[in-house]
Amino acid sequence: MTKIHTSRETGRRPVTGPVTCIGETMAALIPEPAAPLDGAGLLGIRIAGAESNVAMYLADHGVPARWVSALGDDPFGHRIRAEVAASGVDVSGVRTDPHRPTGLLVKDPGTEGTRVHYYRRGSAASALTPDLLDDDAVRSAGLIHLSGITPALSAGCRDLVTALLEPDVAERPCPVSFDVNHRAALWADGAAATVLLGLARRADITFVGLDEAQALWGDGLTDAFAVRDLLPQPPVLVVKDGARAATAFDGSRVHIVPAPKVEVIEPVGAGDAFAAGFLAGLLRGEEPVRALRLGHLTAGAALRVTGDHGPLPDRARLAELLDAAPEEWAEGG
């Protein structure tokens, strides 16, 4: 791992510790085959968590990754811990809570998309607080990755994310990456727009979808440049525009890479995969255009499967796609 933007003052410096991804992962019950939940006969068990998705894809790219969270002392928790660890992610910082359950979600596929029912109130991860900052799994991080899901889970979780995004950049133990990852169903208090804007502005690297920026902060944000005007603070800002393109603002430089054509099986998890690919590229010392390409290619792995985590192309194929000419790239490599 080589270089990545770490502060508004110092630009780039080496990142030496693992990427530490902090947030909740749940057991996911999914009708198999895909069908509306009220008529389903069988439910398959998967795992679902934005931050553990990022950690697993980072591990796929050969980037040392750690996932930090809390799980219940129950079969779902045991399964999640084992599955994330099996992907090559360090789970030594995952706490076991004997008094609270592992979170759960149930997918309900329909003709107009998939609805998700959450059963995570009072979960083990929702009880996380800023005391996590004293854990060696956090203090030894080279880069911390967070999402806007965590501050929606509880007051303690919101305090944790706020503390990790210490306003004084010089006081942070390492740079922080933040994916806005707006989940409207989790923000019953109506605070999403204000809270997520403040957090997005304080991160060293911020990811946001154009559609979620519009939902949160207004339809007037018609393109990536309007989002940059709203979020001028992060040294690196990545604005994802669905199947069209992704734009990276790297200081005063702007880089736009169209999304290659991909046969989409299910879009869930693609944003997490994109973030992991982009971060992996930066950590390798790649220029932002190649990091954006790696983000798109990693997102494609998620788009092609029904779960959140799909297989990457082999290393030789990845290298070939990263070097593809623009016209070959636009056709999907």
Automatic annotation (TrEMBL):
The keyword Transferase applies. Pfam families: PfkB. Residues 19-314 form the Carbohydrate kinase PfkB domain. GO terms for molecular function: kinase activity. Keywords: Kinase, Transferase. The keyword Transferase applies. PANTHER family: 2-DEHYDRO-3-DEOXYGLUCONOKINASE_2-DEHYDRO-3-DEOXYGALACTONOKINASE (PTHR43320:SF2), SUGAR KINASE (PTHR43320). Belongs to the carbohydrate kinase PfkB family. This is Sugar kinase.
